[in-house]
Amino acid sequence: MDREQALEIVEKKIKGPRFQHTLGVVETAIMLSEKYGADKEQAEIAAIFHDYAKLMPISELRDTIIEAKEDERLLLYHPELWHGPAAAYILKNKLSLENEDILNAIRFHTTGRANMSLLEKIIYLADYIEPGRNFPGVEETRELAKNDLNQAVLKAISNTISFLLAKKAAIFPDTFDAYNSFVLNKDSKTTLT
């Protein structure tokens, strides 16, 4: 599947500001993939489809999570986390997208997880820093992304955790696992700044 086919499929599901966000994620993912040596076409396809299930009704998302046999703990957390795993399942089973790295980049783009692949980091970060985003901490994360992918992803995860703590919102365990994976990775020079 090429870019134009993928965009045509996605545009039927999401329109307006959500589609504009998707285009911003696509361009950011391409830039990050070129900078950090990821497969550009895979980054492009993952970015195009990352929010494919975003506008599905909550009841359909719930049913898809159950049918997909995804981590059922997700159902205890905010439905905002459900669209990534639901999209990965739909794309694999209805659109025959078989690349596991692309599917995982879509699946974990809201939560992150321990030991993220290069593509997973790129999609997570592209979703966070795309040009349409405007919230405290995004500029600092964009600056970090210019020089160090791991530091930028760690900053995005840290900001997300801080935001959720301030709201007294539950934080999905995969997000803590992602944070700890970066902090504890002895081969990485990643540190909080």
Automatic annotation (TrEMBL):
InterPro entries: Diverse_Catalytic_Enzymes, HD/PDEase_dom, HD_domain, YqeK. The keyword Ribosomal protein does not apply. GO terms for molecular function: hydrolase activity. It comes from the Bacteria. It catalyses: P(1),P(4)-bis(5'-adenosyl) tetraphosphate + H2O = 2 ADP + 2 H(+). Residues 18-132 form the HD domain. SMART domains: HDc. It holds the Pfam family HD. Keywords: Hydrolase, Iron, Metal-binding, Nucleotide-binding. Its EC number is 3.6.1.41. It is an enzyme of class 3 (hydrolase). This is bis(5'-nucleosyl)-tetraphosphatase (symmetrical). It comes from Lederbergia wuyishanensis. The lineage of its organism: Bacteria, Bacillati, Bacillota, Bacilli, Bacillales.
